[in-house]
Amino acid sequence: MSSQKFTQYLLEKYAADFQKATNHPFLEQSGNGSIDIEPLRSWLKQDYLYAYVGYPKFASALLSKLHFPTPFFSHPTPNLSKAFSVLSFSLANAKRETQFFVDTAKQHGLDVFSQEANDGAEDGGKGLLGEYNEVTRAYVDFLQATGALGSVEEGFVVIWTMEIAYLTAWQYAKTYHKELAAADPASLTQTQQALVKFVDNWTCDEFVEFVEGCAEIVDGAGIEIGSPLAERCEEVFKRCIWLEQRFWPQL
């Protein structure tokens, strides 16, 4: 049995792919405040659809698969208790987070429900996929399929992968963010003011702790490297990273 943590194994094996998913020109320009309003608004719309439609259904399906001992909560294992806490938090937080960036975007003239925000969708939101672009639709479908058909372990690998990719991406953006964050807010454009709030929120200590908690659940799930379960979990990790690489808009 390998002593290496499963999360560490995945990040090391697919380091180049993970970097490609989390280091993107969109993030650089979002960090330094030079991003054009159109791709930012379009990305916010797609991220909203993913987070508000796909994520809660997936987390709910995963929560329903947790097996609690009888009588209820009599002797839950530490990993089971943490899994319940993480999923409960993620469901509540999905609503808070989507409302936060919708409100922030609207406050600063980045209305994600405007027609301009449909630029990334098929035929401006009038095609067969509606307001979704192809990658967002694929991501939501993947989440729903994994929630319905995947194991609990696969599900938590997906949650951890999505969250660590998101955190790492915006931490990367923050490396370009120092001048913007230090500037007088009155000297910034409305878009730049929104970006300061977004970057700070998506790299906050609470989010870091949440991602660390997700990793602890995966590493405590007894996924033995090289086992059939590990191979299935590795496959969903790769699919997540593939989708993350393509979720950023073309500039």
Automatic annotation (TrEMBL):
<protein>
    <recommendedName>
        <fullName>Thiaminase-2/PQQC domain-containing protein</fullName>
    </recommendedName>
</protein>
<dbReference type="Pfam" id="PF03070">
    <property type="entry name" value="TENA_THI-4"/>
</dbReference>
<dbReference type="InterPro" id="IPR016084">
    <property type="entry name" value="Haem_Oase-like_multi-hlx"/>
</dbReference>
<dbReference type="InterPro" id="IPR053261">
    <property type="entry name" value="Polyketide-peptide_reg"/>
</dbReference>
<feature type="domain" description="Thiaminase-2/PQQC">
    <location>
        <begin position="19"/>
        <end position="65"/>
    </location>
</feature>
<dbReference type="InterPro" id="IPR004305">
    <property type="entry name" value="Thiaminase-2/PQQC"/>
</dbReference>
<dbReference type="GO" id="GO:0006772">
    <property type="term" value="P:thiamine metabolic process"/>
</dbReference>
